[in-house]
Design goal:
- This protein is of the alpha+beta class.
- The protein is 30% helix and 18% strand.
- The chain is built from three helices and five strands, in the order ββαβαββα.
- The strands form two sheets. The protein has a three-stranded antiparallel sheet. The protein has a two-stranded parallel ribbon with strand order 3-5.
- It is elongated.
Amino acid sequence: MNAFGDIIDPQNGRIIAGARSVISEEGSATTGEYFADTLQVMKSMVDGQQLRFGRRGNTVIGVVATNAKLNKEQANKVAQMAHDGLARTVRPAHTMVDGDTIFALSTGNRKVDVTIVGAFAAEAFARQFCTLFWPPNQLPDCPPRPQ
């Protein structure tokens, strides 16, 4: 996981990881001053400035594995739907400086509707991004600062 954008808690919309602001020593995540907020920085560049702070080394790669029986087209659809979870938690997602890719694979023969598998794949991805930075259900008020 090396996303270009910020990581957002999909439950409350709060940034829980991302580029830190210049005034982060005084600010906090709850006041919005702790993180730079990538979308706000990009918004300030709308007047023709190029995106110079991004680089092409950013990417998110993931796998959805299920015990549902999926053919090639169904696995592709599940992977496509799992990208919704990425888009809920990485802001902005799928930029020109990202190489976001999610694969899906089937390990079983259980007959399940592909839409259900894909919907929960998206939920699982959204949750997983948050737990990469904080244990489940333990998101603190303010992310730790480097020592």
